[in-house]
Amino acid sequence: MIDSHQHFWSVARGDYAWMGPHVAGLQRDFLPADLAPHLDAAGISRTILVQAAETDAETDFLLDLAEATPFVAGVVGWIDLDGADFPRRFAALRRAPKLVGLRPMLQDCPDDAFILRPRVLDNLAAVAESGLAFDILCFTRHLPHVREALSRTPGLRAVLDHCAKPEIAAGRLDPWRDEVAALAAIPGVRCKVSGLVTEATPDGWTQADLRPVVEHVLACFGPGRLMFGSDWPVCTLAASYGEVFDAARMLLAPHLGPADMARVFGGNAEAFYLGGAAAARGVPVSRPVGRSAGSWR
């Protein structure tokens, strides 16, 4: 199994401007040794490590960590998509063996239409041509701009992070439902079942709170375009790793057979991230040694 979305950071590096008292529980280091026991308990053998800071230095830090961490199968990094230096930086990063994709932090951009800037679109075309993945971190209000960008960037291999963060705590799933359905109508776009517990009420959540979201993305994307992600350690603000993993399994299992569960909990991420990156480099997908692939359980 593969966790398609987790983070590491070292606070002293100073990259994480979004940290503050509102996320006090995250203001410490989270590194491979902290995650490994949770992966073992869940039977997960590999992860996709995703950027959490808008700096080149953090991407380099994550790539170094990935090289030293066998269970990290790939890194989704960051480059300034509107930067004049993008072509040089991208050419250098593409040589990193474990780079599998890029992610701008659209949710934090002052300009909701950032993704439609001319230079951003030009650079997205380069990402599309490379075959690497593109992670979409956004809110519902960004989705019309995202759809327009995807329509103007044919071939871009995109995945929606955290189901676009629906307003679960407020009980408002509209217009999120329609916007997500419209995005899913674009062939090839994927969606991560991730990051939902922290969108639920801060006083606690139940699987019933998450069910309408999970069932909607399943109906829109189908089991062939969904992938499980823990969003660890951000998820620890609301739930343990095991609770997030169990919630995803229990919400999806009533609708999917073993083969489709295996796709959502590993096969889809392998094909999307690792297969795509390998094809871009013309090399075979590497597999971990000495760890059982397990079952979806």
Verbal overview:
With 297 residues, the protein is of the alpha/beta class. The chain has a single domain, classed as TIM Barrel (Alpha-Beta Barrel), CATH 3.20.20.140. It is built from nine helices and eight strands. It has helices at 32-42, 56-68, 86-93, 118-130, 143-151, 176-184, 207-221, 241-252, 258-281, and strands at residues 2-6, 46-50, 72-77, 99-102, 133-136, 157-160, 190-193, 226-228. An eight-stranded parallel β-sheet has the order 1-2-3-4-5-6-7-8, with helices on both faces. Helix 1 (32-42) links the parallel strand 1 (2-6) and strand 2 (46-50). The longest helix has 24 residues, at 258-281. The model is unreliable at 288-297 (pLDDT under 50).
Q: Short summary of the structure?
A:
The chain is of the alpha/beta class. It has one domain: TIM Barrel (Alpha-Beta Barrel), CATH 3.20.20.
Query: Which regions contain 5 or more consecutive residues with pLDDT less than 50?
Result: 288-297
Domain count: 1
Strand content: 5-15%
CATH class: Alpha Beta
Rg value: 18 Å
